[in-house]
Amino acid sequence: MKTGNIALKFNELTGNFEVIHNGFSWVSDGRRPYIILRKKIGQKYVSTYRDLFSAAKKSFAYSDNKVTARLGRYVAFGKTLDFTLILTAEITGENTVEFSLKAENETGYDIQAVYFPAPFNSKKKGKESYHIDAMRQGFLLPDGYKKNVLSTIGFAHYLRKINTGDCYMPFWGRVCDQKGFTAIAETPYDACMFSAFGRHGAFVNSVHWMSSLGKLSYERKIRFIFHDAMDYNTAAKDYRNYLIETNQFVSIEDKIKKNQNIERLIGCPVLHHKIFSQIQPASKFYDENGTNKFLYGTFHQRAEEMQKIKNLGLNKLYIHTDGWGEQGYDNNHPYILPPCKEAGGWDGMKTLSNTCRDLDYIFALHDQYRDFYYTSPVFDMEKAVTHMDGTHPYCSIWDGGEHTFLCASQALEFVKKTYSELEEHNIDVQGAYLDVFSVMNGDECFHPNHTITREESIKHRAECFDYLNEKGLIMSSEEPAMQLLNHLALVHHGPYTLRPQVNGEAVGIPVPLGSLVFHDCIMIPWDWWNNWGIPKGESGNLHCALNAGMPYFHPYVEKDMKLGKDPRSADAELLDDEKLLAEIARVKQLAELQAKLYNKEMVKHEFLGCYERQKATYADGTTVTIDLKENTYEIKENENAEA
């Protein structure tokens, strides 16, 4: 099959493909396509793997630009199953090939997952070949790369859910001597990246398609875009252009038009502070011999600190407030009122919120509507996520101890309850951070009264953000995964992939794929506590500058504490005036850069001869060059460039 610049070859016995673009061959490699079949035995489901092309009945149809395979009569658990899979590969343009997968006659919950197509790799060994990965901000993995190799070996045994911290964006790419492709998973909500190692020491990737409410249910699609000359910038721009073409691109200016208060984030540093923490005995963080309860500061104390910071010259500040609820941080969600009594209760919280308003600071609350604590006064297992087998998720890691997950279809009810009660008590909340919603995959739920798919779960989360956004609150969440990016103005961080994630070594070679796609869509603060997400030994300041991000403001004495068994920042003692003034000067400079570039596309990122020297170019012609070795950054303007 051949159309224009692309030829497509298919092996009926193995299911392998070869795509030839302008004479350069890309072939199936690394992991064979498979299907996971499922059967209920008693109250549980068991599963088994089969080679995808092991079907007892196969037929194939060809046209000038398309091949269709029909695979049926799979045998498992002593029986022949009813469904038929339809696989297609179609040349859809001069440089595009699209693969699709769907099922007919799904009479039961037989299909747990399908891996199709196999990963693609260059047929020949290149002099310079690498994988492009969208895990967190993104990284490159050159063929044969050895640093932090245990992490990438792990990715060959670990399903990374798309649109989560494991994979912010549903695309990946490969480059071989400038030839390359970008692969975009067009149906990402029930999908995982699953990597493998192929020929030439290459790290290759494809998609593990999960069932939706027990069935394959709908057609799954991947688009491959091939190039004669590309790098990782090209892959990021392919995906950005795809978002624009499919009307999925929402800029920060679009968001400001809907909520003018978002404008207040422009040139605004971010303060992350805590009020109260309490680790319950059921939590895995609990330490029988340690400190499990700590008041970092009262509401009144925090109000006085904010006044002092303003007096010292910091005119703008976004204040993310943890641990303000009755039992403290990560306790009793999804309803945590009244405010912490030890910190001053309703009156104290009102003092802090009013002080922030008077200072023109943004007062925002950390909140949670997924973790559903057994101790919560509103706990009801009938509102929890229900698995296919009737069981519920369980977790006991976090401070509040034992909990399940609230079905997202029930979340808006509790959002309304909390924020209407805050309004009734005249608490002037200007922003809300709904924890984990943006970074965790959707939760499908089989409860008969609120059955929802993973995609519907994400839409219900979006309703929570939209409800508060319409009230003028600035909406934020944990990380910039694509599934909810269009409903947020701010995220907690958008870091690089490290092992471990706190002060760890980089996985692969970090590159800002996220910024190349969505810098002008979302505001991201950098340089959080303990270098989280910044490669070991590198400056968070410099990465903040390179990405023209919001700076985190650190007004407290830098010391770590241990609460229970968990290391945390102390956030209890202000710096002296001299150090506070120096910290204010630091963040002001970075905030000015963010104010200049917050709505400008990052059009290009490049390494200047070595990893330590990096340069980002923005749509108005501004360039930011960082030197990680010399610990410097330089900003240059191009007044003749088009804004």
Radius of gyration: 26 Å
Residue share in β-strands: 25-35%
Query: What's the count of strands?
Result: 43
Mean pLDDT over the full residue set: 95
Query: What's the end-to-end separation, in Å?
Result: 44 Å
Oligomer status: single chain
**SS-based structural class?**
alpha+beta
The strands making up the biggest β-sheet line up spatially as: 7-8-11-12-22-19-18-15-16-35
> Low-confidence segments, ≥5 residues, pLDDT <50?
none
Largest sheet: 10 strands, antiparallel
Global shape: globular
Q: What percent of residues adopt helix (DSSP H or I)?
A: 10-25%
Q: Counting H and I runs of at least 4 residues, what is the number of helices?
A: 10
Question: How would you characterize the overall build of this protein?
Answer:
With 643 residues, the protein is α+β, with helices and mostly antiparallel strands. It contains ten helices and 43 strands. The strands form ten sheets. The chain has a ten-stranded antiparallel β-sheet, covered by helices on one side. The protein has an eight-stranded parallel β-sheet with strand order 32-31-30-27-26-23-37-36. Helix 4 (299-311) runs parallel beside helix 5 and helix 6 (411-424) packs parallel to helix 7 (454-470). It is globular.
Layout of secondary structure:
Elements: E1 2-3, E2 6-10, E3 17-21, E4 24-28, E5 34-41, E6 44-51, E7 57-62, E8 66-72, E9 75-76, E10 79-80, E11 84-93, E12 96-104, E13 111-115, E14 120-122, E15 129-133, E16 139-142, H1 149-155, E17 160-161, E18 171-176, E19 179-185, E20 191-197, E21 203-210, E22 220-227, H2 232-245, H3 252-258, E23 270-274, E24 276-278, E25 293-295, H4 299-311, E26 318-322, H5 345-358, E27 362-368, E28 371-373, E29 403-405, H6 411-424, E30 431-435, H7 454-470, E31 474-477, E32 490-491, E33 498-499, E34 505-506, E35 509-510, H8 513-518, E36 525-526, H9 540-546, E37 550-553, E38 560-563, E39 566-569, H10 577-597, E40 602-607, E41 613-618, E42 623-627, E43 632-636
Parallel strand pairs: 23-26, 23-37, 26-27, 27-30, 30-31, 31-32, 36-37
Antiparallel strand pairs: 1-2, 2-3, 3-4, 4-14, 5-6, 5-13, 7-8, 8-11, 9-10, 11-12, 12-22, 13-21, 15-16, 15-18, 16-35, 17-20, 18-19, 19-22, 20-21, 24-25, 28-29, 33-34, 38-39, 40-41, 41-42, 42-43
Helix pairs in contact: 4-5, 6-7
